[in-house]
Amino acid sequence: MPLLNAKTLGDYARYSQMGAEMVAPIILGYLLDDFVFGSLPWLTIVGALTGLVWMLWRLSRLLEHDAQRKPPAKS
């Protein structure tokens, strides 16, 4: 059995995408703060909170999808 199969690589891709989706609003908020509005740190904080809420929502959807995909173990 190979160490990394297609399902495992797909799972890793989803998890890394969630990390990028959490960081992107922080970077966008910082760039808007620094170069457009000059209102440091407010848009950076808003970006961090937006990224956190988005990541938690995506995580709950991912866990819900995984729970539906895998039947519960029989004892």
Bulk shape? elongated
Order of helices and strands: HH
Q: Give average pLDDT, whole number.
A: 87
| Major sheet size, sense and barrel closure | none
Number of domains: 1
How many β-strand runs? 0
Approximately what portion of the residues adopt beta-strand conformation?
under 5%
Compose a concise summary of this entry.
The chain is mostly helical. It has two helices and no strands.
List the helices and strands and how they pair.
Elements: H1 6-37, H2 42-69
Helix pairs in contact: 1-2
Give a written overview of the molecule.
The protein has 75 residues and is mostly helical. It has one domain (7-68). It contains 2 helices and no strands. It has helices spanning 6-37, 42-69. Helix 1 packs antiparallel against helix 2. The longest helix is centred in the first third of the chain and has 32 residues, at 6-37. The radius of gyration is 18 Å and the shape is elongated. It starts with 5 loop residues before the first helix and ends in a 6-residue tail after the last helix. The model has no long low-confidence stretch (mean pLDDT 87).
